[in-house]
Amino acid sequence: MASSSELIVWATLTNGTPADRLRRLGLKVEAIEQDEGRVDRYLLSPQVAVERRTFHTFLEGIRDKSLFASAIYLREHFETPMLLLEGCIDYEASGFHPQAIRGALSALMLEYGLSVLMTTDVDETVHLLAMMARHAQVGVPEISMTPKRKAVSLPDLQRRVVEMLPGCGRVAARELLQTFGSIERIVEADPLDLSRVRGIGRKRSREIAEVLRSEYRAVDTERDLEDAVEASPSLLFDRAVRLLTRQHVITSGTAVVGHRHAIDMVFLDLETSDLVLVELKRGLLKPEHEDQLRRYFDIAPQSPLLQPYLEAGAQMRGVLATVTDCDYVPLSGQITARIVEESAVIEVLIRLRRERLRE
Predict the structure, then answer these.
(1) CA 52 → CA 11, 17, 82, 88, 208, distances in Å?
(2) Contact (CB, 8 A) for 46 and 81
(3) pLDDT at residue 50 is higher than 90
(4) Are 228 and 354 within one domain?
(5) CATH of the domain at 264
(6) What pLDDT shows up at residue 149?
(7) What is the pTM (predicted TM-score) of this model?
């Protein structure tokens, strides 16, 4: 899990109160040049953008139409656009009929496609931004549907861990801990020894041993897929390539209004000297993913990394790749769709894991 100091939030108002408090929480805040002085916007990842408005600036946005212009911009440039409203509204002092405000909120969600969040004050805003930055950059933990009680002591916490093993309720967890004395000894125990514990038996002991000793085999995030492709490009390519960079950010626009775009991986085809821009997904490939990749083609000449290759005559190709079976066929002749075999990715991840553990 990444620490707070590894998380980055890009902000238009880097000297504002939210940005200052994000730094106090240990996050790194970097500037984006985008309607500075008017829009209070935060980029939590290349896909996630949050525009913060107090109810005062929200009402101003309704009055001068800037609210809806921002909504269009956010919808067109980010997969997950959000509007965050901070504070409480005084309908009587607002000068707006309550229905007008409700209509604006409804339009933002249903017509413009924004998620609308509300916080009570700047402190709650900052903590919500920090949490969303962690989820956007590191991932959202799996949510268990099993209600969890709070551990009140170390023995209670130990019992809770053992209760997660196959067929182990509170009684079986106590028996295992009383027999072996620690979770570590339970993990190291032979299945035969486990089966001798009252209430466990042979079948359950084999299931417990399988859970405790089996290699973890999963592709949990797109970053896992990136790691595997970087270590073994043959997962994606049948010819020699060289990785130029990962998570390459390209800024387009002017010094006043800049748009950030990021591509997962950029390779150089060593046979043709072409640039290959790769966008990786864990789920089904969709037309919007192709549109995203085509936008990268348009702005690639503005990248200091890619510009020299393009000036030397390099052509660009795109690859949309996923570990999920799908039949998506790109419309653009520059782009190909690839299904990466998940089992092969897992084997690479296991190799990388073992190499790290040997270090």
Answers:
(1) 11, 12, 9, 14, 49
(2) no
(3) yes
(4) yes
(5) 3.40.1350.10
(6) 55
(7) 0.59
On whether both 93 and 119 belong to a single domain, the answer is: yes
User: 78 and 48 in contact (C-beta within 8 Å)?
Assistant: yes
- When pLDDT is averaged across residues 73-94 and rounded to a whole number, the result is 84
Same domain for 242 and 346, yes or no, is yes
Q: Is residue 226 part of a domain?
A: yes
Query: Long-range contacts made by residues 143-152, C-beta under 8 angstroms, separation at least 24?
Result: none
Q: Is the dihedral of CA 196, 151, 7, 46 positive or negative?
A: positive
Is residue 142 over pLDDT 70? no
The predicted-structure confidence for 274-287, as pLDDT tens digits, reads as follows 999 999 998 889 88
Tokens of 123: 């402190």
265: enclosing H helix or E strand: strand 258-269
> CB burial class (10 A; 0-12, 13-18, 19+) of residue 222?
middle
Number of domains in the chain: 3
Query: In the predicted model, what is the mean pLDDT of the chain?
Result: 87
| pLDDT tier, 337 (very low <50, low <70, confident <90, very high otherwise) | very high
What residues contact residue 170 under an 8 Å CB cut-off, 6+ apart? 159, 163
Confidence band of 313 (pLDDT split at 50, 70, 90): very high
| pLDDT average, residue stretch 139-167 | 73
pLDDT 10s digits, 114-132:
999 999 999 999 999 999 9
C-beta separation of 290 from 331 below 8 A: yes
- With a CB cutoff of 8 Å and minimum separation 6, the contacts of 241 are 233, 267, 268, 269, 270, 276
CATH code (residue 86): 3.40.50.10130
Angle at 118 between CA 117 and CA 119, to 5 degrees: 130
* Domain that residue 8 falls in: 4-137
Distance of alpha carbon 28 from alpha carbon 39, whole angstroms: 20
Give the C-alpha separation, 259 to 257, whole Å. Answer: 7
